[in-house]
Recover the amino acids of this structure.
């Protein structure tokens, strides 16, 4: 429990640090009339663009992955994922928080993960990495279940934020995996191992810990419901 508490404290501290950096931009957005829902939509479109880049990376050359496009896709994913922090801040600072906005943000977050991991899954499959594509599919399932369990728990009036592999962690691992994979594959004069293994390892981490997190949340909900009996 202490380890989890320390992890949450570090994550919260990093989040506050990022907020201090982006808040001037947030105030600028509010002044020009940009709403939280617009920012949320822009973030989703960015994720859609990243997914398209991953898909095209496997299509541009027959039976070969364009690693330059892989790291560019990772960079686009980072920029679009930052908007996920902007929309919440725009809503809070601009006093534009609405129930629909919260639902819209949550729905587009799920769509973003679907298209991003779906694009990576296709890239791996088209590149001949069948096992890697299956692992990515498992990562996608785990990612959705982490969010679904929390949503169902909140519907039962249970706070359910336990577990390690939440959305920010999944996004960071995916971005770093894509950038590292692309840069190693495109910049290294001679590679000691297949660069795509970096992406597959990143997907494996998400596949394992996202599903573990989902089951940890299920267990947490069971305990909380038993307390209410």
């Amino acid at each position: 429990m202490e380890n989890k508490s320390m992890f949450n404290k570090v994550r919260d501290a990093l989040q506050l640090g990022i907020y201090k950096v982006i808040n001037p931009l947030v105030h600028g957005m509010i002044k020009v009339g940009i709403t939280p829902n617009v920012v949320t939509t822009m973030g989703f479109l960015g994720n859609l663009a990243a997914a398209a880049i991953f898909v095209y990376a496997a299509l541009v050359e027959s039976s070969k992955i364009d690693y330059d496009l892989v790291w560019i896709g990772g960079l686009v994913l980072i920029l679009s994922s930052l908007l996920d922090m902007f929309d919440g801040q725009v809503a809070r600072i601009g006093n534009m928080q609405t129930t629909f906005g919260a639902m819209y943000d949550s729905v587009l977050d799920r769509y973003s993960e679907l298209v991003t991991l779906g694009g990576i899954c296709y890239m791996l499959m088209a590149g001949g990495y069948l096992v890697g594509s299956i692992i990515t599919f498992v990562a996608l399932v785990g990612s959705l279940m982490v969010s679904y369990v929390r949503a169902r728990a909140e519907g039962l009036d249970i706070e359910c934020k336990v577990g390690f592999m939440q959305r920010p962690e999944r996004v960071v691992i995916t971005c770093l995996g894509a950038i590292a994979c692309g840069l190693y594959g495109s910049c290294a004069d001679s590679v000691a191992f297949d660069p795509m293994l970096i992406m597959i390892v990143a997907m494996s981490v998400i596949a394992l810990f996202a599903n573990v997190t989902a089951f940890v949340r299920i267990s947490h909900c069971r305990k909380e419901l038993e307390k209410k009996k």
